[in-house]
Task: inverse folding
């Protein structure tokens, strides 16, 4: 960190002691007099080091006195401002190749110092959890809190919602996530995820004596009911969606012999149906509205008597988040979308923004942000997919504040007050 106000201090060895080549990214500095200085940018520095394959952890760094020869040293970089912000990293022993962990850590911190400065964050609203996600997570939490649950494992088929932070948090509380029901012991309790399952999965659960609790989003259940109804009247159901997504697999399973999957307008030309006059389309609930419209137009051109669902299958939350982000994109130099890589609605937010010509990136949390993205960017648009907790949004704003003053401007395009009742198995009397 040359040409910057950088100091190296001796430090109290962290507990547990740093391993070979390991780096501690300070979340706060604790001075000799127990004075404390927060280091909000710690997740940003951690992300750089993790992507480089460096073993890293975060926590407070306790300073002793200025020194150059301690086995445990903390490099403190004062940002180019006078408001007390700091980026600090600590390191212990050399790695097996004789490389200094402190040097690598300082290089990671230096990358963020280079893009430090004041910023405006345009915050999209609505964002984060939708009613279907909130309901699914609530189902699992209520089951965990049931009297007599202690010592009895709770199983969830697939991820309850598509967010790694939510899944890991529930795993820490004892939830066991499985891919298929054959991994669940007979007689155990299993929760079906928010994305829904096919009738074949429900039948398998009954056959194995499992206590199944259905956390399927009611808006997905609506699409399932439409698939059954339209196929029963003799229509071929064309489902617009993404192959392999759990929601798509569940919907196709409602009428597998009368359903066809279309992923893009180009797929339409290959669709074969028994009767071109008896075709109805449905959609996955988490698609981008503009791309879906293109697929529907292609279907209508191929099948002029195409029927549509009585109401839009793309859920209100997906549409609201797309509209909210679209409203703030023109004022931003960069868009950050918080969500996991398998979250369909989060990916659609990124894709839709890029199609509009603005740089956009999907991040799992603050550690996913890269220094180069912020170079020359004074205004950042921020949102989160429908399965990402609000806490991750707060973390990103706090991390950016570690680089300089942040002004948050929230823009609301809709108010969401929808709430879905939990399934009967977990309702409070």
Result:
């Amino acid at each position: 960190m040359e040409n910057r106000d950088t100091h190296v201090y001796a430090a109290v060895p962290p507990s547990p002691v740093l391993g070979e080549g390991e780096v501690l990214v300070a979340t706060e500095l604790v001075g000799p007099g127990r004075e404390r200085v927060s280091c909000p940018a710690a997740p940003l520095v951690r992300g750089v080091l993790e992507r480089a394959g460096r073993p890293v952890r975060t926590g407070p760094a306790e300073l002793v006195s200025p020194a150059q020869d301690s086995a445990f040293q903390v490099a403190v970089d004062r940002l180019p401002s006078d408001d007390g912000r700091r980026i600090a990293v600590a390191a212990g022993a050399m790695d097996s190749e004789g490389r200094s962990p402190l040097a690598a850590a300082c290089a990671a911190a230096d990358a963020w110092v280079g893009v430090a400065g004041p910023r405006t964050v345009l915050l999209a609203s609505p964002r984060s959890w939708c009613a279907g996600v909130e309901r699914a997570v609530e189902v699992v939490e209520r089951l965990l809190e049931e009297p007599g649950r202690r010592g009895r494992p709770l199983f969830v088929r697939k991820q309850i919602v598509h967010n790694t932070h939510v899944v890991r948090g529930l795993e820490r509380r004892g939830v066991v996530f499985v891919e298929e029901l054959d991994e669940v012991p007979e007689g155990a309790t299993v929760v079906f995820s928010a994305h829904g399952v096919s009738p074949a999965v429900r039948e398998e659960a009954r056959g194995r004596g499992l206590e199944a609790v259905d956390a399927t989003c009611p808006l997905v259940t609506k699409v399932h009911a439409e698939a059954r109804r339209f196929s029963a009247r003799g229509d071929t159901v064309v489902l617009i969606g993404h192959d392999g997504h759990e929601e798509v697999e569940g919907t196709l399973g409602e009428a597998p012999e009368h359903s066809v999957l279309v992923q893009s307008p180009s797929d339409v030309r290959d669709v074969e149906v028994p009767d071109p006059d008896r075709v109805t389309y449905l959609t996955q609930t988490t698609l981008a509205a503009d791309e879906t419209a293109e697929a529907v137009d292609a279907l209508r051109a191929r099948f002029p008597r195409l029927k549509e669902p009585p109401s839009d299958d793309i859920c209100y939350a997906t549409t609201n988040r797309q509209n909210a982000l679209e409203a703030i994109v023109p004022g931003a130099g960069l868009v950050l979308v918080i969500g996991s890589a398998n979250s369909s609605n989060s990916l659609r937010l990124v894709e839709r923004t890029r199609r509009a010509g603005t740089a956009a990136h999907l991040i799992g949390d603050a550690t996913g942000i890269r220094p180069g993205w912020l170079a020359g960017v004074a205004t950042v648009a921020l949102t989160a997919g429908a399965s990402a907790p609000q806490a991750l949004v707060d973390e990103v704003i706090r991390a950016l504040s570690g680089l300089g003053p942040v002004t948050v401007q929230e823009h609301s395009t809709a108010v969401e007050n929808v709430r879905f009742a939990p399934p009967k198995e977990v309702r409070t009397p």
